[in-house]
Write a structure and sequence with these properties.
The protein is α/β, with parallel strands linked by helices and about 260 residues long. It has two domains: about 190 residues, 2-enoyl-CoA Hydratase, Chain A, domain 1, CATH 3.90.226.10; about 45 residues, Lyase 2-enoyl-coa Hydratase, Chain  A, domain 2 (Orthogonal Bundle). The chain is about 50% helix and about 15% strand. The strands form two sheets. The chain has a six-stranded mixed sheet, with helices on both faces. Strands 4-6-8-9 form a four-stranded mixed sheet. Helix 1 packs parallel to helix 3. The radius of gyration is 19 Å and the shape is globular. The two termini are about 30 Å apart. Bound molecules: acetoacetyl-coenzyme A. The site of acetoacetyl-coenzyme A (CAA) has 24 residues, from helix 2, strand 6 and helix 4.
Length: about 260
């Protein structure tokens, strides 16, 4: 598929996905959602990279779903739109490689929802977050009512969704919506440095830990711990586990192969 709204740059085993609809503040129209879905659906077996960073071109990360398209929906189209958006967020959440959101500016509505589907959220000091759908007479449709409440608790999620107010990066950090905040000019370097650290670890261990955290959070503690136990045992069948422990005991750097 040829991409018109996203740019994929691969370097040093890292894929940087830039949403590039600057004139609409990177709003997610159907085409952009389809392009992102295509990238994530078809790249999970691509061995040329092991980690993804998503960011936005210009002053926005993503200013939401495209309101011009939303305004043209009827009930049936709105349901389909929500399904496609939710499917994209699930694809990212279940993507085996770690996905970091580098939130450079506005992350509103679908943009906040996209960031929340990523594993880790890093923000620039200029980033702004919000679920402003009630201003449009709508509610979040790409998972905001669910993921926001799980990330920041139901009170804060309700406050953000009921008021539709934006919060700045420091407040987002304070409530646990973002994990780190950096000066604008440092954001991408910090995101890349974090990605490189993750890339130096065992990819199988990272993917397995991602699965355990994601699946465990949506079940009870006992089931989550059972999943961890089974996965802990299974990882002993990998060469990376043998190499990691051996390297430690031999006081050298481990060379992980993802096997
Ligand atoms: N959809 C379509 N176009 C958008 C857009 C969006 N979500 N957000 C911004 N744009 C467009 C504007 O219409 C404008 O286009 P023109 O130059 O052609 O007029 C351009 O981007 C620049 O925007 P502004 O002039 O408004 O820029 P600003 O700096 O004054 O304001 C802003 C920035 C506060 C982010 C403002 O653009 C804004 O409020 N945008 C809408 C945010 C929003 O409501 N998002 C939620 C969408 S609903 C949703 O996402 C539902 C869901 O969960 C799936």
């Amino acid at each position: 598929m040829e991409y018109k709204n996203i740019i994929i740059k691969k370097e040093d085993r890292l894929a940087i996905v830039t949403i590039n609809r600057e004139k609409a503040l990177n709003a997610l129209n159907d085409e952009t959602v389809a392009e992102l879905q295509d990238f994530f659906r078809h790249s999970w077996m691509d061995n040329s990279f092991g980690c993804v960073i998503i960011t936005g071109a210009g002053k926005a990360f993503v200013a939401g779903a495209d309101i011009a398209e939303l305004a043209a929906c009827d009930v049936k189209k709105a349901l389909a739109k929500s399904m496609l958006g939710l499917y994209l967020m699930q694809t990212i959440e279940n993507y085996p490689k770690p996905v970091i959101a580098a939130v450079n500016g506005f992350a509103l509505g679908g943009g906040c929802e996209l960031a929340m589907a990523c594993d880790i959220r890093l923000a620039s000091e200029k980033a702004k977050f919000g679920q402003p759908e009630v201003n449009l007479g709508l509610i979040p449709g790409y998972g905001g009512t669910q993921r926001l409440a799980r990330l920041v608790g139901r009170g804060k999620a309700k406050q953000m969704i009921f008021t539709g107010d934006m919060i700045d990066a420091n407040e987002a950090h304070r409530i646990g919506l973002v994990d780190e905040v950096y000066p604008v000019e440092e954001l991408m370097d910090k995101a890349m440095a974090m990605a490189k650290t993750i890339l130096s670890r065992s990819p199988i261990a990272v993917t397995t830990a991602k699965e355990c955290i994601n699946s465990g959070l949506d079940t009870n503690l006992q089931v989550g711990c059972d999943l961890e136990k089974t996965s802990f045992g299974a990882i002993y069948g990998t060469e990376d586990a043998m190499e990691g422990m051996k390297a430690f005991l031999e006081k050298r750097k481990a060379e992980f192969k993802g096997k």
